[in-house]
Amino acid sequence: MGRLLTIVMCGVLVGGVGACARRSPSEKAERREAAESKYPPPPANSPMAQIEPGMRESQVQKILGPPDDSKAYITGKAFIPYYFGPDQTRFAGYYKGKGRVIFMGGNQWGGGRGKVVRVEYDPSEDGFADTK
Known about the structure:
Layout: H1 2-19, H2 25-37, H3 57-64, E1 69-74, E2 89-95, E3 99-104, E4 115-121
Antiparallel strand pairs: 1-2, 2-3, 3-4
């Protein structure tokens, strides 16, 4: 009876580890492409085309000016114990007629709002965070 229980427990353990397997790189790429295709790239003559990932908020404001509205929110990484990285919060700046610029939040030591993570070009943007 003891051996049978050991074999069953080993089978459950192996099955559990297999269920926790990571996604393949192609699946990750497909998910990233689906998210990126939701918003087309901005036209070359648009000021949004000058915004690149990694830019600071002050650099973005020199190009686009201050946002019409903004919203700060937390990410799932905020709930990971002992994660002290900068991606615990996000900040979205809404620009009427242009779209949104998403910043990775700064750190808890006064790192500001961080850097650009994503640019969402959307000419139908109304400039208000609460209507989304």
